[in-house]
């Protein structure tokens, strides 16, 4: 003998259980996301190449004797690359930009940049490819804007600051800004 039975379920309970099946089928699925974005639109003659924004220059080892004998250490070149330079101003009522200056800024040690660490009696000097020494917080001579891409060549070197020399490690940090006009 075969038995059959029926379960009577109220229609509202049946609908509720059927509608909840997709949720019950994958209870761990919580796919959602967020995209955050930040930026700025600036009116500038050139864009600073991303590789030029933050640079670390290894100054290598410098014997004290070389600094005593020559008064300066070896040059360590670095460059600032500028991209997509244009002299046209976004506001047509303003005149085109023709020049810019570079200002290096850091803690001053006389007319040079201070270094920190165990080493003493030294400061850091920044020179451009024409031999002009940068002074902290003082703008460079005018540089003509050349449409397209530009490369500004500089070098770092250690110089004596008039204090007693002492061997050791050192570090420094310098920022730069470009002003167009």
From TrEMBL:
Name of encoding gene: mrfB
GO cellular component: pilus
Signal sequence residues: 1-25
Family membership noted in the UniProt record: Belongs to the fimbrial protein family.
Keywords linked to the UniProt accession: Fimbrium, Signal
InterPro entries, per database record: Adhesion_dom_fimbrial_sf, Adhesion_dom_sf, Bact_Fimbrial_Adh_Pro
Subcellular location(s) per record: Fimbrium
Name by which UniProt lists this protein: Exported minor pilin protein
SUPFAM superfamilies in the record: Bacterial adhesins
Gene3D superfamilies xrefs: Fimbrial-type adhesion domain
Biological processes per GO annotation: cell adhesion involved in single-species biofilm formation
